[in-house]
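Section 3.1 - Work completed
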Amino acid sequence: MGDRKQARDEEFQRFVIGRWPRLMRTAFLLTGEQHAAEDLVQTTLEQVYVAWRRVGAADDPEAYVRRVMINAHARKHRRRLKEFLAPKDDSGLTHELPDQGDRIAQADDRSALLTALVQLPPRQREAVVLRYWEDLSESQAAEAMGCSVGAVKSNAAKGIAKLRAIPGLADMVTHGGRK
């Protein structure tokens, strides 16, 4: 009995170590703050650890964990929607370290994009983050968000439209030669 628990704990530890950077990136993009992202990942991993036998046996444990994270984020911000949508300033934003293959990280003014992303409503932000940062398919994003593919398409389209409507962001993309 103790050997199985130890093996499960080691499997969970390997999962966390292997997925930590991606989990933190997703949490940061959802929350817009380093400390809030760390709290979200910790809360998510606490919930996942308790159910690791079921999670580890799932076809795609990473998708399961991502769904737990999205749900935890949505629960936390459901009541404080106005505060979440319009932060007073961007001084609390901590910039993530860019991945080498992350094209968005290569943009000249990443902070403008992150600041704009924080202004999106939570569901639009989730859809944009999952579709364009995490590069999930519409069906994978729908599964993670617990909604239909149509809702993902709608939220992503509205979120992208709002991002394109921000003058400074649109100028950065247009003048930078990236469309």
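Second construct:
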Amino acid sequence: MTQPRPPIRVRGRSFMATVLAPTPPLEDWLADLDGLSRRAPAFFAGRPVLLDLSALRPDRAGAEALVAELHGRGITVVALEGEGAEGFGAGLPPALSGGRPGAEIETAETTPEPPRAAAPARSLVLDQPVRSGQAVVHLDGDVTVLGSVASGAEVVAGGSVHVYGALRGRAVAGAAGDPLARIFCRRFEPELVAIDGLYRTADDLDGTRRGQAVQVRLVDDALRIAPLDG
């Protein structure tokens, strides 16, 4: 007797997406984007990107070329928005509208500056937890979170990342090119950890350290996770 087929199950799931809104001249915008990627190599790792074409208003060929440029930089464009995006048709990411905007992610300036004496690193201390959908980017020193970093949140530091609570989101240390930076947390449950461009996602992490107080550091170009008291 043939068994009845189970019904199709449709579920909703929320993800934090980054909106990139290129502005003319496009060559300058791409140069700034490359500067950000050099300073924070893991910034776009595993992150879905919504491409806002409002300022450019490209034709289909221009949109295809821009998506290809971003793809070549390891940036995954999952959707487009902006006037005219819905008319591009198949072969490009779908057009979306009506999303709820999030807070703007602050990044350091990427315009080259004249040589100057090195300034002392400045640490950023956050008295509040970092909530889902928030991103904290501080490339001038350490970031210390006195609470937790929620799933869907991200902390990017030029130096080390210290989380006094649970790390459930993404922690990126050494984003300004510091291989000696570390990640410390009281409860290790991250979506991603990265130091100086080397990263591991939750699927790649050793589950034996989950929920423990740990430190993450680079040893021989590999991420090592050890107990804080070890």
